[in-house]
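Async update (no meeting this week)

Hi team, since we skipped the sync, here's where things stand on the single-chain job. The sequence we agreed to prioritize is pasted below, unchanged from the tracker. I ran it this morning and attached the output directly underneath so nobody has to dig for it. Comments welcome in thread, and please keep replies under the output.
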Amino acid sequence: MINWKVRFKNPVFYVQLGISIMAPIFAYLGITAKDITTWDSFFDIFKQALSNPYILCLIATSIYNAVVDPTTQGIGDSKRAISYNNPVK
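Output:
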């Protein structure tokens, strides 16, 4: 079991998810900051990514790696992490 409530309260989790989605797309398509100068170009990049099964698999793998806690057995959080109500500071 994963403590989603606490993860959604942690801004770092959103950064991890954003990087997990964007990094594979930008790397595979060879995108740089110069290529994203308009919203149209930004959305066009994501349309290309959604039509490519390989990129979607890269994104799924990247999200999996961002969500799973490697310090526990399986894909869930530890019993201690499950008991949290807020992220530990």
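Quick observations from my side:
The chain has one domain: 4-82.
The mean pLDDT is 93.
Reply here if anything looks off.
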